[in-house]
UniProtKB/TrEMBL annotation:
GO CC terms, sorted: cytoplasm
The name this protein goes by in its record: Leucine-rich repeat-containing protein 57
Keyword annotations: Leucine-rich repeat, Repeat
Keyword Repeat included in the entry's annotation: yes
InterPro entries attached to this UniProt entry: Leu-rich_rpt, Leu-rich_rpt_typical-subtyp, LRR_dom_sf, LRR_domain-containing
Length: 238
């Protein structure tokens, strides 16, 4: 990638507030971007080979959307958590094992996508995020869903294609959770909290590809209550 090409991208970004440079084999975050810390609203550096996100990421105080899908990130800097206006964060297809301790300070975050990483649990930091709508943690190595999930504010939680064999009953206390995806995990029917059916807000529960037949789910107490919510939601969107 030549300097002149990068310069052209920077000039465009200065006018539009959008910097997009995908699939260019970049090994590092372009340092020249720091000239635009007050301009940029969107950064997309997906499909590159970036291994480290530098601390200067914390200076983009107006950033609303950050996409770093399909890079080689193993950790995220604590400075990322300073982005108080960040609403969407896409980090699919990296090598992340955990989130920074201060991740709960990303107070404007609405969409978080971490599909295809190496997370082993649902990060407790997510419980502090008050405006979360969608959380995608599919295709990780998550084995259990801890009690802290009960404080999650998300409307949709995607846990497809993990190794989940245990789920805290607290998940049925999530105040806004409507869609719960648990396809292709390691769940026995006895490990699925019945309160998800009888006593939660969840109106779409996707559990195909686990260690039980779907028709067995229909025999559980509370299934009719779940179907009432499911049908009501279907009507609303029809």
């Amino acid at each position: 990638m030549g300097n002149s090409a990068l310069k052209a991208h920077l000039e465009t970004a200065q006018k539009t507030g959008v910097f997009q440079l995908t699939g260019k084999g970049l090994n590092e975050f372009p340092e020249d971007l720091q000239k635009l810390t007050s301009n940029l609203r969107t950064i997309d550096l997906s499909n590159n080979k970036i291994e480290l996100l530098p601390p200067l990421i914390g200076k983009f105080s107006f950033l609303k959307s950050l996409a770093l899908n399909n890079n080689k990130l193993t950790v995220l800097p604590e400075e990322l958590c300073k982005l108080k206006k960040l609403e969407t964060l896409y980090l699919n297809g990296n090598h992340l094992r955990q989130l920074p301790a201060a991740f709960g300070q990303l107070s404007a975050l609405k969409t978080l996508s971490l599909s295809g990483n190496q997370l082993r649990t649902v990060p407790t930091q997510l419980s502090g995020l008050r405006h979360l709508d969608v959380v995608d943690l599919s295709k990780n190595q998550i084995q259990n869903v801890p009690d802290t999930v009960g404080e999650l504010q998300a409307i949709e939680l995607n846990l497809n294609q993990n190794q989940i064999s245990q789920i805290s009953v607290q998940i049925s206390h999530c105040p806004r959770l409507k869609v719960l995806r648990l396809e292709e995990n390691c769940l026995e029917l006895s490990m699925l909290p019945q309160s998800i059916l009888s006593d939660s807000q969840i109106s779409l529960l996707a559990v195909e590809g686990n260690l039980f037949e779907i028709k067995k789910l229909r025999e559980l107490e509370g299934y009719d209550k779940y179907m009432e919510r499911f049908t009501a939601t279907k009507k609303k969107f029809a």
